[in-house]
């Protein structure tokens, strides 16, 4: 029997939290281990429960979802965070991703889109709602950081990073570049260190902003 994906839900609206729990547990394959109504409690429960996924609203008392994502990355590094919010501006999206969020979805997303995002993030990839992705990529194309020397990364590292920016997981990258998954993982660790980031999403953002790889296309 497949181990369920464990979920922490953090939102200050009780009805929304309960609705999410019912949706996920009715779907099957998910187990909600905690529900909280503020950012401080989200961090505390992430530390205690070590869930696979934390679903975080941005506008919560105590700590914002963005700051909670940042702290959860420290207290429970294996927990992946999904920001689920009504905030549509691209700077908020970027701020959340830079804080360590692995996905950003709008609260009006379809249930199927939310389920898919959780599954994608659990596999170690990143997810953005189509509209949010379009805004982020538009901002990246306009540029938000000065370019840096391409010598920062080796040609192979740039190849790997370009595929990360396209949303490929380690297995897909390994197949496309004729490498082992272990080699891809090791190279990614080196890339993260060079770029001063903690995860794939942050690496892709920094790489595109600094002109190290071209921005991906939204389909």
TrEMBL record:
<dbReference type="InterPro" id="IPR011006">
    <property type="entry name" value="CheY-like_superfamily"/>
</dbReference>
<dbReference type="InterPro" id="IPR039420">
    <property type="entry name" value="WalR-like"/>
</dbReference>
<dbReference type="GO" id="GO:0003677">
    <property type="term" value="F:DNA binding"/>
</dbReference>
<dbReference type="InterPro" id="IPR001789">
    <property type="entry name" value="Sig_transdc_resp-reg_receiver"/>
</dbReference>
<dbReference type="Pfam" id="PF00072">
    <property type="entry name" value="Response_reg"/>
</dbReference>
<dbReference type="Pfam" id="PF00196">
    <property type="entry name" value="GerE"/>
</dbReference>
<dbReference type="GO" id="GO:0000160">
    <property type="term" value="P:phosphorelay signal transduction system"/>
</dbReference>
<keyword id="KW-0597">Phosphoprotein</keyword>
<dbReference type="InterPro" id="IPR016032">
    <property type="entry name" value="Sig_transdc_resp-reg_C-effctor"/>
</dbReference>
<keyword id="KW-0238">DNA-binding</keyword>
<feature type="modified residue" description="4-aspartylphosphate">
    <location>
        <position position="57"/>
    </location>
</feature>
<dbReference type="InterPro" id="IPR058245">
    <property type="entry name" value="NreC/VraR/RcsB-like_REC"/>
</dbReference>
<feature type="domain" description="HTH luxR-type">
    <location>
        <begin position="146"/>
        <end position="211"/>
    </location>
</feature>
<protein>
    <submittedName>
        <fullName>DNA-binding response regulator</fullName>
    </submittedName>
</protein>
<dbReference type="GO" id="GO:0006355">
    <property type="term" value="P:regulation of DNA-templated transcription"/>
</dbReference>
<dbReference type="InterPro" id="IPR000792">
    <property type="entry name" value="Tscrpt_reg_LuxR_C"/>
</dbReference>
<feature type="domain" description="Response regulatory">
    <location>
        <begin position="6"/>
        <end position="122"/>
    </location>
</feature>
């Amino acid at each position: 029997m497949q181990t369920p994906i464990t979920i922490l839900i953090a939102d200050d609206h009780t009805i929304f939290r309960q609705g999410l729990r019912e949706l996920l547990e009715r779907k099957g394959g998910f187990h909600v281990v905690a529900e909280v109504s503020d950012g401080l409690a989200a961090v505390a429960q992430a530390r205690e429960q070590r869930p696979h996924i934390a679903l975080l609203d941005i506008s919560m008392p105590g700590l914002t979802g963005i700051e909670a994502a940042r702290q959860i990355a420290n207290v429970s590094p294996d927990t992946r965070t999904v920001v689920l919010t009504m905030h549509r501006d691209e700077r908020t999206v970027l701020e959340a991703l830079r804080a360590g969020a692995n996905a950003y979805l709008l609260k009006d997303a379809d249930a199927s889109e939310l389920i898919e995002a959780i599954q994608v993030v659990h596999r170690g990839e990143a997810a953005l709602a189509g509209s949010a992705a379009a805004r982020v990529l538009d901002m990246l194309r306009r540029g938000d950081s000065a370019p840096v020397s391409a010598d920062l990364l080796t040609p192979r590292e740039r190849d790997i990073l370009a595929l990360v920016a396209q949303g490929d997981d380690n297995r897909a990258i390994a197949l496309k570049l004729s490498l082992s998954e272990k080699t891809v993982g090791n190279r990614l660790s080196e890339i993260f260190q060079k770029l001063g980031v903690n995860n794939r999403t942050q690496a892709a953002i920094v790489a595109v902003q600094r002109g190290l790889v071209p921005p991906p296309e939204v389909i």
